[in-house]
Structures are given as C-alpha cells and as structure tokens.
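Record 1 of the preview.
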Amino acid sequence: MSKLITITSGKGGVGKTTTSVNLGFALNSFGKEVVIVDANLTTPNIGLHLGAPIVPVNLNHVLLGKAKVGDAIYEHSSGTKVIPSSLSSREMRNIDYSGLKDVAKKLKKDADFIIYDCAAGLGNEATKAIEAADEIIIVTNPEITAVTDALKTIKMAQDLKKEVKGVIVTRVRGRKGEMPLSNIRDMLGMPILGVIPEDKNAHFALNHKMPMIELYPHSHASRNYRRIAAKIADVDLNDHYRTPLIVKVFGKK
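->
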C-alpha cells in the first residue's frame, strides 16, 4: 500500500529538508518506489540539495493548473524521483495549497512512499501538507525552543486527526545544555524514531548537491538515517544495503 509521509517541524533550520532527502533516498535503496515532493513552496530547498534548483516544470505549475503531475517528476541517478518547487516569487501567486492532496492521490498510483518536505510552522501551507498525509514525522533539535514548537505542530496534526509516527531529533552534539532524549520524549509524548548527530558531512554533501547517505554512506548520520528508513519500511537493514552510486546526473523522467 502506498503511503504519504509529511515531514515537518515547528521551526525552520532544524534539518527537515536534509531529513526528507536522506530518508527518501534510503527508502529507495531498499527497492521502494519513492517520490520526494518539495511541499515547502514558500522557501523550497529540495532542488538546491540535489543540484536541480531550476527545472522546466515544477510543483507550482501543477498547483496552478499549468502542467500535469507526471510532467513535474524528475528522476535522480539513484532512481529516487523528485518534484521540485519554484524559486520564483512570481510563481507563488494564486497557489491553492489544497491541491497538495490531489497531487498525493495521483502519486500514490505508482509510488510506495511519497515524502512531503513541509513548510515549517503552523501556517496554511504547512496545514495543507499535513492534511494530505497518511503519517506525520516531526523533526526537532534538542533545544527547548525547537521542542516547544514541535509540540505545537504535534497538537495541530492531532487536531487534524493525523497520525504522528514519531520524532527525529537532529543536530545532536552531546553538549551540556541540550535537552536529554528522555525529556524530549516525555514533553512531546511521542516515540523517538531516531537520533541524527551533528555531522560536517551534511554541509559537504549539500555543496556537492548529493544526499549524505549517497556521498558519505558510512558516516554516523547516514547510518542512522538508514536505520530510521528501515523502521518506516519495515525491512531488515542487513538485507538491503547497497553501495551508493556516486554520480551527479539529474535527468527528466
């Protein structure tokens, strides 16, 4: 059964897009058909992360009724499919975010997992991405402000009667002053799906326009993203490990 997972956060800058990209590519490495959608139309970053910041057809065109969903899908060399959004503020005008639900329905016909990289916060854009989801994953840092905002997002998802799968805690440095995982779990009332340590390779991967799990597969962060993806897909990680294909080609479907 196809599943749409919206990955969101209460505040920006917590590693939500990095999480969306790496989980999507990890799921694809398990043999799953995956489409990552940049549902953060206000500040889209998926294309920047993967070396395709500007494409002929994007999600904005689809939501404006100027293109079909299939025309906005691009395939990475790994086989992971991506729908970028536009960087142009002009193409933000008159967009109906409720169309994200229709996009999801069409993608479910051919994909095992659809990942919506959602806008941070509690605005209309984020709300519509959450409403389209089958499950929600919350990304937060081990800081009181980030966790407090994450709690607000969880409450909103619950008000919308959406299942919150759990929480991914990113950018963990193990420093004094960080919230302990037990405190985060208790405050949010949700299981912690995994912990992603602060990793300089994330910055290098972004500079190379490649997912970290493809470029640095043996880093601690990459290994943890694979573990989380294995939980999501309910697969044995040892049966699905593959050597990453390190290329930079980004071709049209």
